Amino acid sequence: MRRKKSTKKGGQFLLEFALILPFFMLIVVGGMIDFGFIFNNLLTLQEVANKAAQFGARQAEPESTSSDSMVKYLTGSYCNRIVPKNWTMFSATVDIRNGASANYRVVEVVTTYNSPVFTPFWATMVTAVSGEDTAVFPLTARATYQVPKFFRD
């Protein structure tokens, strides 16, 4: 009787899968971790913009434009106080202007932050796409609040 030659390809597949799996998991799990950090930073940035615009709207006067530079300064310094301490690449711009119908005034705060990318694979991808030397993901948040017409005593 003759025996058939058996081809054992199941072992080859298992070995190749075991070699590729760690790299695949690094890419997938690392991407989820980086996306989580970036999304958390975006939510924090939006909260900072909201709080600063609300603070600026409370400080501004509804009719007068004489104190706008002081309100911009106070709002910018408030923004820098409430931002997380480890954020070094943060900036905020404050604008006070008339609304669309010129019957009201608004305070607008635009905040930007370059969120770092941590995993090596995604850091390489971000630097290759952006052309920058550092692996950062730029985030921007904007908040606009109307200056209240009446103040509490």
Description:
There is one protein chain. The chain is of the alpha+beta class and 153 residues long. The chain has one domain. The protein is built from 3 helices and 3 strands; from the N terminus they run H-H-E-E-H-E. Helix 1 (9-59) packs antiparallel against helix 2 (68-82).
Quick structural summary:
This protein is an alpha+beta fold and 153 residues long. It has helices spanning 9-59, 68-82, 120-130, and strands spanning 90-98, 105-116, 136-146. The mean pLDDT is 86.
Side-by-side strand order of the widest sheet: 1-2-3
Tell me the Rg in angstroms. Answer: 26 Å
- Oligomer state of the chains in this structure: single chain
How many strands, which pairing sense, and closed or not: the largest β-sheet?
A: 3 strands, antiparallel
First CA to last CA: what distance?
106 Å
Structural domain count: 1
What class, by secondary structure content? alpha+beta
By DSSP (H or I, 4+ residues per run), the number of helices equals 3
Shape: rod-shaped
Estimate the mean pLDDT confidence.
Answer: 86
The SSE order reads HHEEHE
Based on the model shown, name its key terms.
rod-shaped; 3-stranded antiparallel beta sheet; 3 strands
Outline the secondary-structure elements.
Elements lengths: L8 H51 L8 H15 L7 E9 L6 E12 L3 H11 L5 E11 L7
Antiparallel strand pairs: 1-2, 2-3
Helix pairs in contact: 1-2
